[in-house]
Write a structure and sequence with these properties.
With 183 residues, the protein is of the alpha+beta class. The protein has helices spanning 4-27, 29-48, 81-87, 134-137, 141-144, 169-182, and strands at 60-61, 66-71, 74-79, 90-94, 101-102, 107-113, 117-121, 126-131, 153-157. It folds into 2 domains: 4-48; 60-182, RNA polymerase II/Efflux pump adaptor protein, barrel-sandwich hybrid domain (OB fold (Dihydrolipoamide Acetyltransferase, E2P), Beta Barrel), CATH 2.40.50. A hairpin with a 2-residue loop joins strand 2 (66-71) and strand 3 (74-79). Helix 1 (4-27) runs antiparallel to helix 2 (29-48). It starts with a helix and ends with a helix.
């Protein structure tokens, strides 16, 4: 059940952000508009995540920019915020069949965006238990909510020891910073 007070608070915050952006646009569209719209998009993402950090602490990450959330022997898998930003507007996802098994590092799914097609790799070995069917009709959820409604699939983990080779959030953020310097 939704907390209506929280929803109203998020709406008012969003409304105020957009009002500020429109004011800047009115006074000097050539200078302020692109910058304020960028700030607005960032603030909207922060609001959507409830003020949380961009990369959830309880997840693990790969160098290929997949995330994995483990609950018992089941892993939910998706792409990181960084990955969705690099891909741009996501237009479709090609899923594996439920029951298919993958080894760590194998391509499990394909993501088509306006810019390119990208592989999604298995962060651990396992069997596909479920795919996010909502992405078939709404692939943009991967852009809008990569750590929530934009999850791609769930795997039954075959080898839990493979989780040890994944990055925790601090390591992933350090990796992103390092990658940004060399890119």
């Amino acid at each position: 059940m939704r907390n209506m007070g929280e929803e109203r608070s998020k709406f008012l915050c969003f409304y105020n952000i957009m009002h500020i952006c429109l004011c800047f646009q009115h006074y000097n569209a050539k200078i302020f508009y692109p910058n304020t719209m960028f700030v607005a998009r960032v603030l909207v993402q922060i609001i959507r995540l409830g003020g949380a950090e961009m990369n959830p602490r309880e997840y693990k990450y790969t160098k290929e920019h997949e995330w994995i959330k483990v609950e018992g022997d089941v892993a939910s898998i998706g792409i990181t915020n960084y990955a969705q930003e690099q891909l741009g507007d996501i237009v479709s996802v090609e899923f594996p069949k439920t029951g298919k098994e993958f080894l760590k590092g194998e391509t499990m799914a394909l993501i088509d965006s306006m810019k390119t097609t990208s592989d999604v790799y298995a962060p651990v070995s396992g069997e596909v238990l479920e795919i996010n069917g909502e992405l078939e009709s709404r692939p943009e959820l991967m852009n809008e909510d990569p750590y929530g409604e934009g999850w791609i699939l769930k795997l039954k983990i075959k080898n839990p020891d493979e989780l040890e080779g994944l990055m925790i959030v601090e390591d992933y953020e350090a990796y992103l910073a390092e990658e940004g310097e060399t890119a």
